[in-house]
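Protocol step 4 of 6.
Sequence for Esterase (Aquirufa ecclesiirivi) entered exactly as in the expression construct, tag removed. Do not edit the line below.
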Amino acid sequence: MKTKVRFITMYSIALLTCLSITVFTSQAQEMANVRRAVIVSPEIGEKTVTFRISAPKAKLVRLYGSWMKSFDSSTNMLKDSVGTWTVKIPTPSPELYTYHFIVDGMTVNDVNNIFLQRDGVRYLSVLLVPGKTTSNYFEANQRGNLKKVWYDSPTIGSNRHMYVYTPYGYETSNQNYPVLYLLHGGGGDEDAWSTMGRAVQILDNLIEKKLAVPMICVMPNGNPGQKAAKTLLLDEKLYDRNDPAFQNLYITSIVKDIIPYVEKNYKAISNADSRAVAGLSMGGAHTISVSNEFPGTFNYICPLSIGVRTITPEFESKLQGVKKAGYKLYWFACGNEDFLWEMAKTTEASLSKNGIEHTFFVSPGGHTWANWRIYLNTFGQLLFK
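Step 5 output, structure tokens:
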């Protein structure tokens, strides 16, 4: 009798254990399924875009995007039973936007979105809305190469970093190519045009569509105190911006160091007809300065979103030097809401006064990458023709 009771007791324990394991396994599997659930963000629909973020313990989550007029326009998100916050908005007009979440007051990138762009010392999540404006911002079928290059700059006194784009077919081609020297703005570095400006995609698409001449594009670091972008963690040198020697240090290095390096190490055509210089903001100032100080070096000159604060006799004399040396295109652009708009108009008036035949391309909007991508997409079709 005792043996029978013992058998029943052990049987009951075993049964309860099996049931417990089954329940635990089922609960663990359910939790694992919740954890493994794929969160898609952003999800671009025909008329709406949906953003999602998992933050089970958060009390308030908001979305802010660059398509909004101001930070006060940020939108509240709704939380579901498993802690995923969601918001659905009307699809913004085609453009490349950046956005972030505000989780209980803290700015957070979209961890479910692998499309990030670096803006100086910040990384931002990207929303790229397809459409006519952005058609050249996506990958082309025929893609060139972007290489990170170190070169010696005796002018500045350091080994420095730049990006060099070569068009599709460059490696196997026997031809030589014209070169666009594309300069970034303040706060940027050699990575800016390829990352935020989508320069590689724009050039690839224009060339593939036969809207632009196949060209090399050189994107240097315009900060003479930097050997490379801050992400490389190299030491930097501080310069006194009021020192006259500093003013032309970088543009001199373009002509004395960068151009010789490119024309020695790449299949580049070595004449002014095959050289273009363009730049935004600070890079626009560099564009004006390098063409003024070294007239006849570039026959395609494209300053963007910049202007000269005071038009001096010395400045106008240098414009006369550009005119005398000759050029094929002077393409000047600015947004009519740009904070430099008045300076740009003053500079454009000086170009006209001094007989510098030019195009003044005026766009809506301000001092933004949305404009600078449009400018590259536009003047890129005019170069070397």
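Step 6, annotate. Confidence is low (pLDDT under 50) at residues 1-26, 30-34.
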